[in-house]
Amino acid sequence: MRDSAPAGFVDFVVARGSALHRTAVLLTRQEQTAQDLVQIALAKAWQSWSRIDCNPEAYVRAIMVNEFASGWRRRWRGELPTADLPDLPLGNDDGDGDVVSTRQSLMAALATLPARQRAVVVLRFFHDYTEAATAEAMGTSVGTVKSQTFKALAALRVCDELGEDADPDLTGSAQGGVTR
């Protein structure tokens, strides 16, 4: 292990850490698990930082998607789901209630998707990746990305969590996302 950070690593984490965390939250649906996923990905990137040639963010996202997929395959996830939900914070009166409700509806709808379809939706629509960039990040073919996107969007169209009142923009580009 190194004693000090490789050149450019700290700057990368400061600049893109929050975007990586958003991706992890969308993938895992849990704050603590998302933090762990980002930490694991950054630790792996740290070890091979000198070998990353062109786009370190794509490299780290690929690590995150692979770790998420391999974690999904493991039998024990370390936490047990519960039927009791924690109290939600009260919305303020500045009109953000609709945004919060739409975000919650979208997160609930994403939770209904299988892991692979969720990863495709997050990379394609929240980070505005092309099909080719998504395929590269997931380590799969463009055809698989297309079929998984089709299935995911079809499932989201009929999802109860996305009722008529919630109208998320799945076709628009992500705010703060990386265009490929």
Task: Explain what the structure shows.
The structure is a single chain. By secondary structure, this protein is mainly α. It is 59% helix and 0% strand. Helix 1 packs antiparallel against helix 2, helix 5 crosses helix 7 and helix 6 crosses helix 7.
What keyword list fits this structure?
single chain; 180 residues; mainly alpha; 7 helices; disordered C terminus
Outline the secondary-structure elements.
Layout: H1 9-28, H2 31-47, H3 56-73, H4 97-111, H5 115-126, H6 131-138, H7 142-157
Describe the oligomeric state of these chains in a short phrase: single chain
| Average residue pLDDT | 79
- Give the low-confidence spans: 170-180
Helical region count? 7
Please outline what is shown here.
With 180 residues, the protein is mainly α. 59% of the residues lie in helices and 0% in strands.
